[in-house]
Write a structure and sequence with these properties.
The structure is a homotrimer of 367-residue chains. The first copy, chain A, has 367 residues and is of the alpha+beta class. Chain A has six helices and 19 strands.
Chain lengths: 367, 367, 367
């Protein structure tokens, strides 16, 4: 073996933001995506077969038939069961083996023929799956905050991001990149103005509120505050364990909460399930229905998401090329390091107990 | 490094049915596939160059020129030798270096310039290669049972299967999957009937005989027993070390032996060389020649093989995703576990001596 | 785990000609390839962003923004700096952080925000980069020998070779393969003639001179010695540390020095930068300008390079398949083993001091 070169700094190895928080819920799919055929999803490398039973309720089992290890997601739904396509073994939503065609003896004996099963929930347009099998979850999945308020319209969008859950969440909640990556769409990299930021650490959540921010540039600003006048902007970015990244904008009566539920497919692949809850009473009353506005905004939103997806992919490819992450942060990387801290605590099983008041920290930023 | 998640069962690792039986013969290619150009084949990851010498006999050497490691299969045959395409070194069928163009000194000195050579045989339409180089084989390759009986017609077909030799052999000899995977083609998953099975363990072979089976459904049944009457069905499935999976059907005078010689390319890739020996005296005499019947059956056989290939691929991909196999068997998995036992014994160099009578085991199955 | 097979020779592992000589210069790109956009290059697996500053001088930094690890080569040049496309951080040619948009505090504090920087040089049509960052190189890059002699015409060509730097250099300087790999183009594998070879080992270079060689066959011979007469052929092949493979032909007044600078991208990928310096006074004066001759020769040269590239690819794929190299050499492999010796010494930091006279060795070869 040749000696290692002496002069080059060693490559980064094993430093990864990929966190394995498995005692919690993730979105498996949009409700509309789960029809009569089973669906294959993956949580942090664990393949899961999600299916909709004949009674309409979702169920989820490990995506491997215990018999010959074929993916159950390639089989069929039979009443309350999922049936393997190779030999026809059937399993119910609790993972119990219910049929072995050809076998003369008893089918459901012991647990050796069962398959691990995952708890499921369905609400607010998404099917949630608990990432650890064969346990009763202690907590409930996240609920969209405005889903029951019928003044709001909700639109959904799913997208695959080539980044860790952490990198994807940081990107979704990061302000400074917008002037560069989304140059011209969102914020301009021109005249800058100093604003105040308050970062608040809760036990299972971290949020940053931006004070003194101008109306957003571009189409978004025009929609939220059509008069262009002297509205007070309320802008909060949040991360909620284990997977919610949320951006909230309020200008006068205009209000958007854009929630993304991030499902970690593998260490460096994240499926993003977006739900934007909108209300534009001024515009809607005077000019056009909310749906029309939302449709007009969608190409812009998809362009922004596409630029973010491209940047995450470049970042991830480079991180993998170097064998790990080696980040340098400054104080304007407000939420990224905090999100990682929350994920690491949860991964170690060391979530903090709820507390009455968050820890707060204030800083300045040029936007 | 983050802690490992605490609640998820550990993935299966290192459990594999891939057996490395190297002191035996495998089919390298069909005789018709070996012309004047060398052919590259792989046995359990070992690249081998097979070539047909000018006198028509096959030869096989390690597919790596000892000089600069270029594959010899990319060169040419020169009389009794294979010639490397990079610098023109030549090797005979025993692997001895016979030419080094440009060299003034002696070519064939010592063994350092030789290439490992593999024993070869050619009969019954196939070229066989012994998987260990530079040894004199103790045994002979398998011979097709009816090849010299001219009442039979033989057809050949080669196909790549994305599975271990074991998974491919089990699939070829497994009865219960046919009602599901080949639903409608072979057996129906409808009214089932209980039959008796006798499994017989020989020293280098295992076979299962099915008693009381009805005439096969579909085209195959019609061909074997055109009258549809009350024929006694004889059906035996066999595995013979190291690589033969054989299905035999007899209904009256109709008789098929379908032999597949399985060549393990790598742990999870197997090349299947099929030879079906047929005799349909009733049909052939009255309606049409055997060749016509065989041609009519071929699309059906290829469809069944294609479904098997697809199932093996799904199984193998899933096994690799989980890091290994984790099978649960029942008594109707008659031959699979027995085949693995034979392969494991042979791999350890612990083949059993021949015995007078096989061990037998009887069981029931619904078909 | 199954036992390892007992009879097959163990595969070669870990024997590799890939040498990591990092305290030296390599060509990053042709000068014409470096415009206003940064360029991503890789030296032995280390990604480097090369850019041309506003003043025209080249600079090179590690291709990873220290902030969020996105490749800097995907950003833009801003005056003397390179700017990351994600958050707009800027770095000068010495790797110092010069801008962090949005940050209120001081940017250039300490070295934590800097990026490793690589020394650069530009001359003779190539941009050179020193492979170790943040050091002042002790030596200078290689210079083309005839670049300042205006009787010569120089043409450039870059090409990727799927081989280690060593395999690519040996191929470029190897005589015996030409009769086989380039059969019909260069040398014929027909009547052979014995010639003398003198191999000379210098401290940082090795060369082989061929005496008694006939005029090269084919187009090259016709161009170098159009009369076909009794010219004395001077033919020298050279390797100069760390990356120069050079072939020199002189027949009468015709003279070519074909220099290839080999940049090791990874262990088994090498980018070849070729520069051929030509002079054909006889032909140029009587029949056609040098440029016309060069253009006529280019398709031949590209065909030869293409055959070499294909052979290297086959060799490399096979070496990787077997897990390493296992070469057998004879005395007519004149330069290959010597080049490896030089590379290994340099890799260990054990280059020899200059000496007055080279060690010489004489041998015979049939060409």
């Amino acid at each position: 073996m040749p000696l290692e070169p002496r002069l080059v700094p060693p490559p980064t190895k094993g430093v990864s933001s990929a966190a394995k928080v498995l005692d919690d819920w993730y979105v498996a799919c949009e409700s509309t995506a789960l029809g009569s055929k089973p669906l294959a999803v993956t949580f942090l490398g664990t393949p899961i077969a999600v299916f909709r039973r004949a009674d309409g309720t979702p169920a989820a089992v490990l995506d491997r038939c215990p018999h010959r290890n074929v993916p159950l997601s390639m089989g069929k739904v039979r009443g309350p069961n999922i049936e393997c396509g190779y030999h026809g073994w059937q399993f119910d939503g609790d993972g119990r083996c219910k049929a072995i065609p050809g076998l003369c003896g008893e089918v459901d004996k012991g647990t050796g023929r069962n398959v691990p099963a995952f708890a499921t929930r369905e609400h607010d347009g998404w099917v949630w799956v608990y990432a650890t099998p064969d346990v009763t979850p202690e907590r409930d999945p996240y609920r969209l905050p405005l889903r029951d308020d019928d003044r709001y319209t909700t639109v959904y969008q799913a997208l695959d991001m080539a980044g860790s859950l952490h990198a994807t969440a940081e990107n979704a909640l990061d302000v400074p990149h917008t002037a560069f990556l989304h140059s011209g769409l969102f914020r301009e990299d021109g005249e800058r103005q100093q604003i105040d930021v308050e970062m608040r650490r809760h036990h299972d959540m971290v949020e940053a509120e931006y004070f003194g921010e101008q109306r957003p540039e571009g189409l978004l600003g025009k929609v939220l505050a059509p008069g262009g006048g002297d509205f007070e902007v309320r802008h909060v970015d949040r991360f909620i364990l284990p997977c919610i990244a949320q951006v909230e904008y309020q200008l006068g009566e205009g209000h958007i909460i854009a929630t993304t539920a991030l499902t970690p497919i593998s260490d460096y692949e994240t499926r993003l399930f977006g739900a934007a809850e909108f209300r534009f009473p001024y515009l809607s009353a005077r000019f056009m229905p909310t749906k029309t506005i939302v449709n007009a905004l969608k190409p812009l939103a998809l362009k922004v998401l596409g630029q973010d997806a491209a940047a995450l992919k470049k970042q991830t490819r480079n991180v993998q090329r170097f064998g790990g992450e080696q980040y340098v942060s400054t104080e304007i990387d407000v939420l990224g390091p905090e999100i990682l801290r929350l994920l690491r605590q949860a991964e170690r099983g060391a979530r903090r107990p709820p507390r009455e008041r968050p820890e707060t920290k204030r800083l300045q930023m040029l936007v």
